[in-house]
């Protein structure tokens, strides 16, 4: 299991606006804000965004990462997708069942402001959801 996960952002404010909105749809919120790092979650900060360092080994181009956030149902996956695309996120995959993963896997994929592949997924969807 993952305790927490963090990514670096080229524009922390743009990323904060993105994650405030799309994670809010999934029932998560900004729990901690240190100005240069923001933690999101429900019971504790499990997902962090931080300023991209300008010097040192972590500076330079940000590599794409994939982040999948749990959604309770297909409707919430759709709401996540609508929130993200409403903010101008690039569509990678519209909401749908992904039977190649398993028969109840319903996900939607977008790019965040830093080019990361961000997904909302429900593992209990039914055909027709």
TrEMBL record:
Taxonomy, superkingdom: Bacteria
PROSITE patterns recorded: VOC
Protein name: VOC family protein
Source lineage: Bacteria, Bacillati, Actinomycetota, Actinomycetes, Propionibacteriales
Residue intervals of the VOC domain: 1-123
Taxonomic source organism: Nocardioides koreensis
